[in-house]
Amino acid sequence: MNDMTTYQIADIFQCTCCGFCCHGETTVSLDRHDQERMIKALGLTPEATRQQYWRVTGSVVQMQTRDGHCIFYDTNIGCTVHEGRPWRCRQWPLHPSMLADENNYRTITESCPGFKKGHSYEEFCRILRALLERGDGDKTGG
Ligand code: SF4
Ligand code: SF4
Questions:
Q1: N or C: at which end does the chain have fewer Cβ atoms within 10 angstroms?
Q2: pTM for this one?
Q3: Does the C-beta of 17 come closer than 6 Å to ligand 1?
């Protein structure tokens, strides 16, 4: 059995870059830190970023969509604002809610093909918990 400190994200997940999580007619919402990070990554003014890339509904800021996916998604290269992507995109799909409820685990693992097969739910939780406690839940895909 692995020592808790030697677990790697690759033990449970490797993004296949299928793009599923970047598709849909809405996107995750951006909190203030997300907005600041994205503006910086794009090198634009807040107003230009808002006009070109965001959909603002009241106090909710989301990314615009094009052709059924996030405006930043490119079929060939994936996320084109990788350094400036929102924290929810950084977190996905290693979401802590999977630790609380096996149904969440099943729903998420069925929607994302990047999860490694063969782990029991208990093994998966042990590894994910260790990664999250180590602050290592920011995977590189999605
Ligand atoms: S995180 Fe999962 S759903 Fe999203 S691109 Fe990677 S493999 Fe596909
Ligand atoms: S990972 Fe990038 S392309 Fe995908 S939804 Fe997030 S910001 Fe958009």
A1: N
A2: 0.86
A3: yes
Least-confidence region, from 11-20, 115-124, 127-136: 127-136
Mean pLDDT computed over 107-119: 95
Query: For the chain, what percent of residues have pLDDT higher than 70?
Result: 93
Q: How far, in Å, from the CA of 72 to the mean position of ligand 2? A: 6
Ligand 1 binding pocket includes 15 (Cβ within 6 Å):
yes
Q: Is 87 in the pocket of ligand 1 (CB under 6 A)?
A: no
Any atom of ligand 2 within 6 Å of the Cβ of 79: yes
CB-based contacts of 16-21 (< 8 A; 24+ apart in sequence)? 16/113, 16/114, 16/141, 17/78, 17/141, 18/113, 18/114, 19/69, 19/73, 19/75, 19/78, 20/111, 20/112, 20/113, 21/89, 21/92, 21/93, 21/111, 21/112, 21/142
Domain ranges of the chain: 6-133
Ligand 2 pocket: which of 70, 74, 138 to mutate (most atoms <8 Å of CB)? Answer: 70
